[in-house]
Design brief:
There is one protein chain. By secondary structure, this protein is mainly α. It has a single domain, classed as MFS general substrate transporter like domains (Growth Hormone, Chain: A, Up-down Bundle). The chain is built from 16 helices and no strands. α1 runs parallel beside α7, α1 runs antiparallel to α8 and α13 packs antiparallel against α14.
């Protein structure tokens, strides 16, 4: 059964890997820090004003994530992701035409978020969960490792490229990456094993996509809101610090290349974190893994906030590990606690709650820098928010089909 899962699902795993890597929550998110200083210098925008761009796009995603989840439940993954990737790429191509108007920045951010929500885990984790049961955590980790690839490659290569060729050229590169990836994703993805012609005889009766909790029942459970609270605290703590990491290092006196190299360590940590967490949660009760992982994340934020840039590599590893764990765990918890029948709608609501924190985090993180000239307070807040994450994780119930 375990061998068959990878044999029958490798194309879906590859399609999800590519789609998640080039999506809005990965490639664009990890490039956010690259634009902050060039936009400050060219347009005179403050960091809070720039951070509000991300808050706008995230709020759009908060509203649309459950809607897109329902569309996927009804119409399937392939048409939704194809339309999303094409629309999202089109808006990326418009960014180089910005002329200093904040209204234009916000309008473009609003536009790419409308399509970009279909390029996130809302779409791709459902396909993984349908094809993988025994190795679900590992498969999710492998697919989501593409975000780590981008977290490594974007600061490592795009940061110096933009320093040499300008930020507009950077957006053209990202547009081309999405454009090339779209047909690959479309032809590789499937909704369920029988769509790929690989379902073993006798497995149809146990098709995991036909079993699960109704949406209305799921959202009335204490477990749903515990899971939602965990990921809201995580996103509120961490997702403002990731785009601030490169400018934080540059503010401390490091060059763009040096900052990019340290941010690349964060990217490597994302990859390792996703693979490691995915592997472990197939073997150890996932809430215990969650509590342990985010204890270490809190310590990493604390070390950078108190010790300064000398502890940047430890903080990079901790922050990368946090980002490496969260989306894996949202998909895993959704499938294990609520099943796949209404996975898109349930995951979509959990994801929208998760990214609501991503709307708040860059705004207050940027404001803290504007007022204090550093990110120390933001790092302290992040460490403090890991306390309820650990406590709530330890109160989650056992899975029914453990």
């Amino acid at each position: 059964m375990q061998e068959n899962e990878f044999k029958r699902g490798w194309t879906v795993l590859l399609g999800a890997f590519i789609g998640l890597g080039v999506g809005l929550a990965s490639m664009v998110y990890y490039s956010t820090g690259i634009w902050i200083r060039p936009w400050q210098e060219e347009f005179g925008w403050t960091r809070a004003e720039i951070g509000f761009q991300q808050s706008i796009s995230v709020m759009v995603m908060v509203v649309l994530a459950p809607v897109v989840g329902r569309l996927i439940d009804r119409y399937g993954i392939r048409p939704v992701t194809a339309i999303s990737l094409i629309g999202y790429a089109s808006f990326l191509l418009l960014f180089p035409f910005m002329n200093g108007s904040l209204s234009m920045l916000y309008a473009l951010s609003f536009g790419y978020a409308i399509f970009g929500i279909g390029t996130t885990g809302v779409s791709f984790t459902r396909a993984i969960n349908a094809f993988f049961v025994k190795n679900r955590g590992l498969a999710l980790g492998i697919a989501l490792t593409s975000g780590g690839v981008m977290a490594y490659a974007i600061p490592r290569f795009l940061t110096p490229f933009v320093a040499e060729n300008g930020w507009r050229a950077g957006y053209v590169v990202m547009f081309l990456i999405v454009l090339i990836s779209t047909p690959l994703v479309y032809f590789l993805l499937r909704d369920r094993p029988e769509d790929a012609g690989t379902q073993d005889n006798g497995e149809a009766a146990t098709d995991p996509t036909q079993h699960g909790v109704p949406f209305a029942v799921a959202i009335r459970t204490v477990t749903f809101w515990k899971v939602a609270a965990i990921f809201l605290f995580i996103s509120s703590a961490i997702l403002g610090l990731i785009p601030a990491f490169i400018p934080l290092l540059q503010d401390a006196g490091l060059t763009a290349a040096e900052s990019g190299q340290l941010a690349a360590v964060l990217g490597l940590s994302v990859m390792v974190g996703r693979l490691f967490i995915g592997f472990v949660i197939d073997r150890i009760f996932a809430p215990y893994v969650t509590a342990t992982a985010f204890t270490l994340v809190g310590l990493g934020c604390l070390s950078l906030g108190i010790g300064g840039v000398d502890y940047a590599i430890f903080a990079a590893i901790a922050l990368g590990f946090a980002v490496g764990a969260e989306v894996d765990l949202i998909g895993y918890f959704t499938a294990r606690y609520f099943g796949l029948l209404n996975y898109g709608a349930i995951y979509g609501l959990l994801y929208s709650i998760f990214i609501f924190g991503a709307a708040i985090a860059p705004l207050y993180t940027g404001y803290i820098w504007d007022v204090t000239g550093n990110y120390d307070l933001a790092l302290m807040i992040a460490a403090a928010l890991m306390v309820p994450v650990v406590i709530i994780s330890l109160t989650l119930p056992r899975f029914e089909n453990a």
